[in-house]
Design a protein that fits this description.
295 residues, mainly alpha, Lysozyme, 61% helix, globular
Length: 295
């Protein structure tokens, strides 16, 4: 520090306005990230190394009282990082996917037995009267617990893998489906609606499987398969009997008749998805029971 000579006039220190200070700090952080980010880094590597550093840096600045206003939200930080990586040609502008940072922090803050979204599954499952591990199984099957996946009019979006057309039926836009809370709420409402369509099915187990199948391919196709099964002498109220006809619904001799209103569909895919989700749900149920036993 320079010594002040005798008689020298000392000017008061001019402090930057809070808004200017906030802008300056943000710009400095962004410049550091740009310098360290290059094409040779994979997106996940960049976020694991620099994204968390950025978030922690902003938190420390806030603790030190350098921010006059609350620090940017995690969503704002993620958007800023997305913009940088798109600029560096690491991400495509049409499909940015920077949920690594947000997921890692969410898991630390609200870690559950199955995922960081257990509290959402529990809340919505209670609302519709389902076991919450079914919602968890759907989420893993559809997105591997990644809330920002998917895009396009014909592509499932978000944590629960919901089509934009389905979202519109519940008054939800495609962009809103990327919000985990909204996605789980819509998915639960879908399951509830599908289960009610099969209220005439006597056993809860069969109703759940019919509802899961409807979630995968649409209830219209499942009702078609039930009618075809009944025509061929099978019990349309029993999943195991209808399942064999779902598998055949891409064959002309089964979908080209007056009982079928919604045409052919990939029944093998539907049955496999239902089987995978159901098996995962049972596994989660055991995992949850084990976790409760340890407490």
């Amino acid at each position: 520090m320079r010594r002040i000579s005798q008689g020298e006039k000392v000017l008061p220190i001019k402090r930057a306005a809070p808004q200017e200070r906030q802008y300056e700090l943000k710009q400095n952080l962004m410049r550091k990230i740009r310098l360290r980010t290059s094409k040779k880094f994979a997106t996940s590597c960049v976020f694991r190394r620099y994204g968390v550093v950025l978030f922690c840096s902003l938190a420390l600045l806030n603790v030190g009282g350098l921010w006059a206003a609350p620090p940017p939200s995690l969503g704002a930080i993620t958007q800023a990082m997305e913009a940088i990586l798109i600029e560096q040609h690491i991400l495509s502008p049409s499909q940015p996917s920077l949920n690594i940072l947000s997921n890692s922090i969410e898991e630390e803050e609200g870690k559950g037995v199955i995922s960081a979204y257990d509290h959402l599954f529990i809340k919505e499952a209670k609302r519709i009267g389902w076991d919450w591990w079914y919602l968890a199984a759907i989420a893993y099957h559809e997105s591997k617990f990644q809330p920002h996946v998917g895009g396009g009019r014909a592509v499932a979006i978000g944590l629960m893998g919901i089509l934009p057309s389905t979202g519109r039926r519940f008054g939800v836009s495609a962009s809103q489906l990327r919000d985990a809370t909204t996605s789980v709420r819509v998915a639960a409402s879908c399951l509830d609606a599908f289960a009610k369509e099969f209220n005439h099915v006597s056993t809860l187990r069969d109703r759940e499987l019919f509802a899961l199948a409807s979630y995968v391919c649409g209830s219209g196709h499942i009702h078609d398969a039930c009618r075809v099964a009944q025509k061929h002498g099978a019990n349309p109220l029993v999943w195991e009997e209808v399942k064999s006809f779902i598998l055949k619904m891409n064959q002309p001799q089964y979908y080209r008749n007056k009982q079928v209103r919604f045409g052919r569909f990939n029944g093998k895919h539907t049955v496999k998805c239902v089987s995978d989700i159901d098996a995962l749900a049972q596994k989660y149920a055991q995992q949850i029971a084990q976790a409760k036993g340890e407490k």
